[in-house]
Amino acid sequence: MNRFQWYVMGSVLAAGLLGLAHEASGETLAVEPATNSQCKPRTLKGNYAYASDGYTLSGTERVPFSQAGHDFFQGDGTLTGAVTVNVQGELFRLTYSGTYTLEPDCRGTMTVIDNLGVTAHFDIFVTKNGSELSFLQTDAGNVTSGFEVRGD
């Protein structure tokens, strides 16, 4: 498996470890339902810019990466995008397409497939007006999360 595939395959572990650490601390996470939220797939529409970093796990080795890109959400549950990824100094310029879901409480999922055939999965959390979203990759062995902001 090449370095990029390791990058794509490992971004959620850190979040899981943070959740375990939080749980181990004895605190409970309070989640209040968003009763007045009205998020729908059309809440995400337009160009969004993002940057994130993290690492993938390759055996016991952590392989760091950083990335910057943009998504174009069509407002119908589909998206396209482009990203430049730096994996230990090696650059990859990729394009991708995908799908997303968005629940009324503004939580959802996103799946993208890049031009190399690599699939990545994310949990997403969207502001009520759709101007920003946060994401967390949920593929085992990947540790990354970030924010996206809609351009004007």
Automatic annotation (TrEMBL):
The keyword Signal applies. It comes from the Bacteria. Residues 1-23 form the signal peptide. Keywords: Signal. This is Lipoprotein. It comes from Cystobacter fuscus. The lineage of its organism: Bacteria, Pseudomonadati, Myxococcota, Myxococcia, Myxococcales.
